[in-house]
Amino acid sequence: MPYLDRLNRVCGFLDLEEKENSCRFLRRYFILDTLGNVLLWYMDNPQNLPSGASSVGSLKLTYISKVNEATAKQKPKTEFCFVINAVSRRYFLQADDANDMKDWISALNKASKITVPKPSSTSAPPRPDVTAEISDSQGGKRQHAYKTEVIGGVVVHTPIQNESEETNGKEKKGNRPGVLRCGYCVKQGNVRKSWKRRFFTLDDKAVSYYKSEADKEPLRAVSLRDIQKVHECLVKSGDLLLRDNLFEIITSSRTFYIQTDSPEDMRGWIRDIEMKIQEFRGPPRVTLFFFFVVPCSNAARLSIKLKTPLARLVLKASGSGDPSW
């Protein structure tokens, strides 16, 4: 789900079609920078990339004419798909769910709205031919020729040359039997304190993380028995101050700092881990005492004491003067 970062920019992961009509989607981290008038996408959250890492692609918001849900004819096998109609090409993107898709469409359409000033007698007619610059995946710039016209009060860009930009690499969500939750998160290393992206799983016994989704053996498994607490990391200092969607898993020997892609993911991990811990430990122990006084033929009193979860039956016989309880 898209969310607002500390700079009030809409951010989040989407799958971007590598080349138009290629049907090959790559996982990218998008930042909608309205102040900079640009939509940027990165290989990962910039917080997890080396300092100074540049985006792998960008698109000026003024080059966007419309953003809408992709039709079944355009992408019959891709659900939650929407399209950015831009100057040089159409950008097809796949969201995680329907709400995610609607939020991105709304945010992009709102950010790319263009107000066309009313023509005046002194204003010069718009130049029909201009050149747009769109960053390519290598950080350089390629020029695309297109024609700009105002038709019916709307700016229309007609591309003369259609090119596509290339990106590589892909993240894929996976489902594993017996796993309640899985997905990529970013964790802080214990020694060098560096941040690395890892594939996390949660099952009935542990929270485990792998170097990649394809690995069969985890780098580490944190047993539910050892977890003392899991909650959102609110007290931050140093490098943690720059981290959004951060939660911590506290054990007796170490605190694990984990960053998710969105606030919804963070809350989901916390909720599911807490639920599994509760299931692992079982219901809270409750001790109940029941006393029954039964008259006996010899005028003695019989006291029965029940204790749960381990029930004990204690029979005590005494004289009529001994209350026995």
Let me know the CATH homologous superfamily of the largest domain. Pleckstrin-homology domain (PH domain)/Phosphotyrosine-binding domain (PTB)
- Please report the first level of CATH classification, the CATH class of the largest domain: Mainly Beta
Largest sheet: 8 strands, antiparallel
Helix content: 10-25%
Mean pLDDT: 76
Gyration radius over CA: 30 Å
Principal-axes geometry comes out as elongated
Order of helices and strands: EEEEEEEEHEEEEEEEEEEHEE
Keywords: Cell membrane, Cytoplasm, Lipid-binding, Membrane, Nucleus, Phosphoprotein, Repeat
Domain PH: 7-113, 178-278
Organism: Austrofundulus limnaeus
Pfam families: PH
Annotate the secondary structure layout.
Blueprint: E1 3-4, E2 10-17, E3 25-33, E4 38-42, E5 57-60, E6 66-69, E7 81-85, E8 90-94, H1 98-111, E9 129-135, E10 141-151, E11 154-159, E12 181-188, E13 195-202, E14 206-210, E15 220-223, E16 227-232, E17 246-251, E18 255-259, H2 263-281, E19 290-295, E20 301-306
Function: Binds specifically to phosphatidylinositol 3,4-diphosphate (PtdIns3,4P2), but not to other phosphoinositides. May recruit other proteins to the plasma membrane.
Domain PH: 7-113, 178-278
Protein name: Pleckstrin homology domain-containing family A member 2 isoform X2
